[in-house]
Amino acid sequence: MKSKILDVFFDLDHTLWDFEKNSALAFDTILKKHKVDVNIQDFISLYVPINIKYWKLYQNDEVTQEQLRYGRLKDVFDHMQIEIDDEMIHFLAEEYISYLPQFNHLYDGTIELLEYLKPKYRLHIITNGFHQIQNNKLVNSNIVHYFETITNSENAGVKKPNPEIFNYALDLAKCSKETSIMIGDNMEADIEGALNVGLDAIFFNEHNLETHPNIKQVNHLLDLKKYL
Q1: NCBIfam families under this entry (predicted)?
Q2: Is 2 part of any domain?
Q3: Which listed residue (7, 13, 18, 190) is catalytic?
């Protein structure tokens, strides 16, 4: 693989950018700021799986961006039996989006890996996130300069695993799928999506999930050096 790969595509959230840690910090900040009386640990433990559910729906075009942002918070407050009116939920949803990119924790090994890869390959991002938010994350965490192109679902008009977003990213990068590889944490969106268009892929399997033995995978980002 090392001899033929020229372009490396990364997912952003849960792959390089530590979404769960940064998200928890953003919620802790805004809930305290607006005096919402919740136990933050209880809130986050409910929010994480609910957010995953809503992103799955969003990925499959079953909810809109606004429904995603509102619904995940509404469901958490309902589960916690906390009465908050819709106007406040919409306000908190916007506050969260505003504060989220201000926290910039990256996965262990991110900078070392990017420094290692940058002289050898052209690096790119493919993300299902929203343009402005994802760009702010890259800028604020000081890694935007490592990437030649940034493809997001907002600009591409479709979301991973739709083949069109991968083709859009390849066209934007002016590269070939035969000499490119995708790295991400989501088996369906990142790995199967890439493989289905003939793009090689490596699964960032942070949680040691059981996977097909033929899927290339790493449990730590620096293990990618074995492949690249």
Answers
A1: HAD-SF-IA-v1, YjjG_YfnB
A2: no
A3: 13
